[in-house]
Give the backbone structure.
Amino acid sequence: MTNQNTLDCRNIYCVGRNYRLHAAELGNAVPESPMIFAKPSHAAVRLDGSAIALPGDRGAVHYEAELVWLAGRRYEPGIALHELYTHFTVGLDLTLRDVQDGLKAKGYPWLAAKGFRHSAPLGRWLPYEANAERSGRSFAMRLNGTEVQRGHAADMVFDLAALTAHVGAIYGIGPGDLLFTGTPEGVGKLADGDAVELLWGDEQVGAGTFVI
Ligand code: ZN
């Protein structure tokens, strides 16, 4: 039985190349302004211990563990982060990497690589923590019990305030919108049956297995 436990949300914004070492591992330069893309709301699914079905016929599916913030109200210029965001968690920006390489080569949009159903599994919501991105706590992903990624939000190229101002002014942010804030180095391929755990510090906030 695969997970039908979709998660109600509205817009899902993501940022590419927001950690230097991850940009470098894929051979990409760090952008001069945030490189924003979006996923359909149907990408969101709870990482609540159940199995999640992913496409198995379109090449490699890569995991990218990221901090994700949930907006509770409408963005206005100058709004404080603690007024805008109610919760945060760790999520995965799942990516069909071979598809993405093909799209990049043609200069096509990333939707087919980044926007498929279940491409945004999310841990449980934690209450907004002031300065979570500067608190020294880190987030991590374990694959089959082994830690494969650990990131410190302080290493983001564009921090939460900068990303919020950029996305809010250009695209708008409203209640139910999610903001994925980029992945640190260590991305890699998922295989059928892989078990994933997401951590904030050492606290597990999400877990599940993948059917590919
Ligand atoms: Zn990402």
Remarks:
- Residues 14, 64, 66, 93, 182-183 surround zinc ion (CB under 6 Å).
- The chain has a mean pLDDT of 93.
